[in-house]
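Risk register update: the risk of archive-format incompatibility is retired. Evidence:
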Amino acid sequence: MKERTFIAIKPDAVQRALIGRIIARIEEKGYKIVALKMLQVTKEQAASHYAEHVGKPFYTSLVKFIMSAPIVAMVVEGEDAILGMRQIMGKTNPSNADVGTIRGDFSPEMSYNVIHGSDGPESAEREIGIYFKPEEICEWKTMFEIVKEYNS
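Archived output:
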């Protein structure tokens, strides 16, 4: 099923100049980036993004970290994009992430795991809404989609 997910290249990856390498992995897998921007996360955006963690001992550090440097926010589209992107990213704790995943290859520790991806359709919709206005999401077709339509 074609779906959209929210992906953020986190401050640690931006600071380490990994943006291009991470985006390349997403595109090489065949997913389509339909929205993309670099931004400094505001306190309001951080609070909305991490609302489910309010009251947990790590909440303050999450908010501080996401605001510590710019992020690259994306809306990624494709067949089963949520699950597929979670597989490409690897397990949240880089110590458990497989080699070949983004976290397995680029993350030194749990606090610096370089990428965020929505964990389900509801969180994807909510997170996309925090960072993007509807008019910032582009509707376009890949050559594969065009050929597939033509041949139908």
